[in-house]
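[Discussion] Sanity-checking designs against the backbone

I'm trying to build intuition for which residues belong where. Below is a structure token string of 200 positions. I'd appreciate it if someone posts a full sequence so I can compare it with mine line by line.
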């Protein structure tokens, strides 16, 4: 990435992403509204090649920060991984991250294995995914051969660990107990931090 005294060189700094053909319309939005909103809120310029699915993200001005450029890329990636634009925009918050699990790295590329694992993660009537989302306060998308998670760093990683346990074949009840224990400990840790900040 080309930078000059912490600023970008316009026309030189570019990030490239690839988006599945069926997600291009979601990224652009009706009358281009979604793409316009991403650009407006991140100070970037986004070009979408509807034929190849290539997305180019550039700073719109020399004052565009590296963080905003990365945030724009994360939003594009989140939409590519199946999130609605509304959920993807949560990544604009400073503490939010996007984590992606490639299921093929765990179970290989046999369609029946992938299908079975995805069914475990989603659960009957979507219950498993919904439980993980509700307990951790994250958003989870199971799309193609990927699972994507949006949340703050700590809770997104707890959700990721729970999903990895399901991939490994652990029982749902075991995973839910793990989640409750980890989130209880995380809340206690955050409370302690708040107390520390209050004490001069």
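Best answer:
Here's mine. Compare freely.
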């Amino acid at each position: 990435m080309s930078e000059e005294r912490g600023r970008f060189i316009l026309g030189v700094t570019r990030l490239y992403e690839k988006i599945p053909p069926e997600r291009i319309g979601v990224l652009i939005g009706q009358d281009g509204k979604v793409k316009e909103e991403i650009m407006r809120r991140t100070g970037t310029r986004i070009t979408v090649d509807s034929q190849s699915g290539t997305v180019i993200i550039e700073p719109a001005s020399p004052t565009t920060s590296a963080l905003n450029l990365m945030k724009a890329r994360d939003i594009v990636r989140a939409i590519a991984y199946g999130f609605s634009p509304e959920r993807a925009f949560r990544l604009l918050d400073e503490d939010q991250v996007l984590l992606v699990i490639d299921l093929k790295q765990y179970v290989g590329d046999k369609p029946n294995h992938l299908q079975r694992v995805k069914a475990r993660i989603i659960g009957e009537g979507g219950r498993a995914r919904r439980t993980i989302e509700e307990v951790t306060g994250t958003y989870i998308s199971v799309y193609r051969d990927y699972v994507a998670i949006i949340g703050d760093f700590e809770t997104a990683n707890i959700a990721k660990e729970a999903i990895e346990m399901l991939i490994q074949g652990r029982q749902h009840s075991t995973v839910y107990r793990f989640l409750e224990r980890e989130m209880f400990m995380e809340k206690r840790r955050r409370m302690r931090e708040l107390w520390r900040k209050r004490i001069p």
